[in-house]
Amino acid sequence: MDQQSKVAVIGAGVMGEALIAALISSGVKPHHITISEKREDRAQELISKYSIKAAALNANVSDADALLLVVKPQDMATVLEEIKGSINPKAVVITFAAGKTISFISNGLGTSNPVIRVMPNTPTLVGKGMAAASMSAGVTDAQRDFVLGFLEATGTVIEVSEDLQDAVTATSGSGPAYFFAFVEAMVNGAKELGLSEKDATTLTVQTIIGAAKLLEESGKNATTLRENVTSPSGTTAAALASFGDANLDSIVAKAMKAARDRSQELA
Predict the structure, then answer these.
(1) Which residue of 85, 153, 167, 228 pairs with 26 in a disulfide if CB–CB is 3.0 to 4.6 A?
(2) Which CATH code fits 7-169?
(3) 168 touches 160 (CB < 8 A)
(4) Measured between alpha carbons, how far is 166 from 155 in angstroms, rounded to an integer?
C-alpha cells in the first residue's frame, strides 16, 4: 500500500473526521478517500471541508484498498453483515471500536481479509492522540506501515499484541476521562477554598498543562518530578499524604480494572 491507495471510511463522526484529517496529513490524496455516512448533511460537510468523496456503503468497500471502521461497538455486527458480500478481498480492514476483537471482525465478515485493531483516544482530535494497534495474521508490511504511518499523524502510536488491547483501553482509551474528572475535582476543591469558578478553572487547567509539558520535555519521570516539588513537611507533602490515606493508587487501579473488564464484556 501507498499514498495512492483508495481508503474507505465508514462512519464520519468526530473520530472519523480526525482520521480523515490524519490520512490527508500523511499524504493520502483527498480524492482517494471516500466516506459512507448515513447523515447526508454530515457527509456534505466533510466533502466541502476536505474535498473527499462519498459513496454508498457496498460500492465504497468494494473499491477500497483500506477500510476504516469507525462505528460504535454496538453497530459493528450490523455493518459487517452489510459489507461482507461486497468487500474487496485484498483490502486491509482497520477497526476502531472498543472491545471488538480481530476474530469478531473476521467472523462477522466471513472473509480472509487482514484486520488491524486500533484503540485511539479523543486527543486524536487535536493531533495529540495515543493509539495502539494490533495486527492479525496476513497483514503485510506495506499495510502495517500505511496504518501506523497515518496514525502517527494523530499523535503517538504503538504496536501491541491483541491480548493487551483491553489494558490499552483502560489506560489510554478511557484515560482522558480520568484526567477530566480530576480537573473537575480540583476546580471544585479550589472553589470550596474560596476561589471563583473562573480563577479556579484558570489555575487548575494551566497547572495541569504545565505539569504535562514538564513531564514531556524534562526527561524526568513522574516519580522524580513529584519528589522534586515535595518538600518534607510542606504543603505538597500534606496534600499527597491525604491522597495516600485515601488509597489513591488503589482507587485508580480499581477504576482501570473496571474499564478493562467492561472492554472484555464488549467483545
Answers:
(1) 153
(2) 3.40.50.720
(3) yes
(4) 20
